[in-house]
Amino acid sequence: MTGWIAIAGLGPGDDALMTPQVSQALSDATDLIGYAPYVRRVPDRPGLARHETDNREELHRARHALELAQAGHRVVVASSGDPGVFAMAAAVFEAIEAGPPDWRMLDVRVLPGITAMLAAAARIGAPLGHDFCAINLSDNLKPWDLIEHRLRLAVQADFAIALYNPRSKSRPQGFARCLSLLQQTCEAGRLLIFARAVSTPDENLRVVPLRDARPEMADMRTVVLIGSSATRLIERPGTPFVYTPRSAPV
Amino acid sequence: MTGWIAIAGLGPGDDALMTPQVSQALSDATDLIGYAPYVRRVPDRPGLARHETDNREELHRARHALELAQAGHRVVVASSGDPGVFAMAAAVFEAIEAGPPDWRMLDVRVLPGITAMLAAAARIGAPLGHDFCAINLSDNLKPWDLIEHRLRLAVQADFAIALYNPRSKSRPQGFARCLSLLQQTCEAGRLLIFARAVSTPDENLRVVPLRDARPEMADMRTVVLIGSSATRLIERPGTPFVYTPRSAPV
After folding, report:
1. Membrane-crossing residues (chains A, B) (predicted)?
2. Which residues does B62 contact at the CB level (< 8 Å), separation at least 6?
3. Are both A65 and A162 inside the same structural domain?
């Protein structure tokens, strides 16, 4: 048996948002490995070995997947959203680079998925309809000063901004500091979208102007979208539409 | 009949990358409207009226779709990639905001798709595995100075950068100016990925250091990914892997 490894994006939650390419890989796999809540999203079936791991063990999990593939298994590494956006793909390539030369010869594929910011944007309108950036607020992997530096420059560039992992367990004050930086540098009416657990039964969407934004509006299942200075709100009954026009003023 | 409008992302090309949600909307629709090459990706069937338009007519196309939905049609507006990323969703919301109040009451949904930068990143490894931004180089809709301003700040922030529509018809020199700006501000070994027509029969991937990058390596079907200063290349037979580590140096 020839082994392979597919680092697959399950999308934000709803199976209707998972690509047929990922479904096919899950059908063909002998082994499924990932952070426990993601592994549990895939129905059990005979012939599929399941390996649930803790969230903090990305490199260990990546090496385990590579060892299984080298031994001839067909391994799916499950990520939520897209595996290339603050998820497992980078960890697998880090393991390959640091690992035995044989690992470079393995059949490794990354199967893209619908990442949280795009699922959230779609639910509210088109807030990322112009230039934008994505910043991971988890400071396990980078110093806080770098996060602030990037956020300042993103505001100067007038990007729409997606913040992933806004409430870091290791430093719960991080997102509060972001809000405070935004309140010092942006107009009070700047639009923020708190999008929690999009496409799942727990979905919750909230649009607030910066002046009313509070740190506790976000948790680890939330992606926060910050409009650019041009982002607009269209009032209607229920949740409004929010979009960023395609054109920038000349 | 109650009309609706679904602004749907067909993904980068391969049907295996189109979500079941989008396939379902295409099955339920009475009308399909969009830029001709995207409409042609959807197989013909009885009961589906097809409306192909020119690429420059986004607002006209959006209004047409809204009028059809208001008249009770079930309308899919087709975008390549994700409709919220430099595509049709923002145009539809612009038309809604400027249109009659009734349009705000319509059933309007955005159905996300796999956008070009994430499809391209997946094919080469995980170059967007750390903080990143997306910039549209088409200067039909914004002044060139703003593009340069954003690119400079993105380099200062040390984002990985995805450039959409690198060769604008209206100003073919734009991408050459970007390369020249990058060559002045980044190290000569900075990694660039030219990803053309990903997931289609015309797919072509090329990894080059900045010193060897040339404007003619990109065309309108190319997305260009620019690594951050931390992006790494893993040599192997054939196309190398490229990834950006999850951690930033402290």
Report:
1. none
2. B77, B88, B91, B92, B94, B95
3. no
Kindly state the average pLDDT of the residues A163-185. 89
- Out of B17, B115, B141, the one facing A247 most closely (by C-beta) is B141
- Cβ neighbours of B19 in A, within 8 Å: 11, 16-19, 114
Q: Which residue of B has its CA nearest to A12?
A: B112
Q: Which spans in chain A are helix H?
A: 20-28, 36-39, 58-70, 88-98, 116-124, 144-156, 174-185
For the cut 70, the answer to whether the pLDDT of residue B250 exceeds it is no
State whether A114 and B114 contact (CB < 8 Å): yes
Neighbours of B43 (CB within 10 A): 8
| Mean pLDDT, all residues of chain B | 95
Determine contact, residues A122/A106, Cβ cutoff 8 Å. no
Give the pLDDT score at A248.
80
Q: Examine residue B249 and state whether it is found in any structural domain, yes or no.
A: no
Q: What is the pLDDT, as a whole number, of residue B95? A: 97
Whole-number pLDDT of residue B247: 87
Residues of the domain holding B163 = 117-243
